[in-house]
Amino acid sequence: MFKSITLGQYYQTDSILHRLDPRVKLSATLLYIVALFVVNSFPGYLFAGIFLVCMIRLSHVPFSYMVRGMKAILFLLLLTMTFNLFLTPGEPLVQFWKLTITREGLSTAIMMAVRLSFLVIGSSLMTLTTTPTQLTDAMEAMMNPFKRIHMPVHEIAMMMSIALRFIPILMEETDKIMKAQMARGADFDSKNLMKKIQSMIPLLVPLFVSAFRRANDLAMAMEARCYRGGEGRTKMKPLVYQGRDRIAYVILFAFFAACIAFRATSHMVPFPLGALS
Questions:
Q1: Phi, psi for 130 (deg, rounded to 5)
Q2: Which of 3, 47, 53, 153 falls between 20 and 30 A from 120, CA-CA?
Q3: Residue 177 vs residue 270, higher pLDDT
Q4: How confident is the model at residue 99 (pLDDT cuts 50, 70, 90)?
Q5: For the chain, which residues make up each domain, given as ranges?
Q6: Mean pLDDT of the chain
Q7: What Cα–Cα distance (Å) separates residue 216 from each residue in 162, 175, 222?
Q8: What global pTM score does this model have?
């Protein structure tokens, strides 16, 4: 279950995406998320999907490994689709009891499902091709202008990076605790809601203890290495843009311009549903 979460994990291999400057990948992820909210038509989402598939191919990360991360948001995906299906007013398609599925609701549900799926996969692609150290350096470099207003940029970037890195560690710890509790007779598959809530208590308590212990160990390790924040610190590998990074920026802005063009030329029908009428 928890091994299906790919967000925050790094997949080590040699690819053009792995060699890109982390600032490019962070900017690309943010711009891609914005682009998903810009497009509102079937051709626009098809174009965004093709772009994402091309990036996955360039990353050399197995597609099955990438899609595996969708299992973690399956419940949220189904919940979002259900609300949009039954709560969006419009032209009725199917009606039973007091529930009505409308053409607009079906279009919105499909659009939200595609948008959420692309968003998770695109975010996972960044973390799978970028180490936590590179991600910290990229966030710090991009937030440098805020130092003028005395914002602790290095500390914020460090906290975000540590939080992201702790996601797979805590998921792995949760999986180990679950297996240990199941070996002692704990039932996590019960369909009774109250029993399921009660079974989570012996899981959450050792998980919180483990999380605080890891945080304390990390703080002691940083203190032992005389860590005092980013002021006056130098970097072993400073970030320098290469020619491939500039080409990546050109491709990225061309993609975003195409998404704006799709929105400007599209009608407000997210997906072709003529076959359903």
A1: -135, 130
A2: 153
A3: 177
A4: confident
A5: 2-276
A6: 81
A7: 13, 21, 10
A8: 0.75
Q: Residue by residue, what is the 3-state secondary structure of the chain?
A: CHHHCCCCCCCCCCCHHHHCCHHHHHHHHHHHHHHHHHCCCHHHHHHHHHHHHHHHHHHCCCHHHHHHHHHHHHHHHHHHHHHHHHHCCCCEEEEECCEEEEHHHHHHHHHHHHHHHHHHHHHHHHHHCCCHHHHHHHHHHHCHHHHHHCCCHHHHHHHHHHHHHHHHHHHHHHHHHHHHHHHCCCCCCCCCHHHHHHHHHHHHHHHHHHHHHHHHHHHHHHHHCCCCCCCCCCCCCCCCCCHHHHHHHHHHHHHHHHHHHHHHHCCCCCCCCHHHC
Cβ-based neighbours of 136, under 8 Å, separated by 6 or more: 157, 158, 160, 161
Q: Is 97 left (phi over 0), alpha (psi -120 to 50) or beta?
A: left
Q: Name the amino acid, one letter, at 256.
A: F
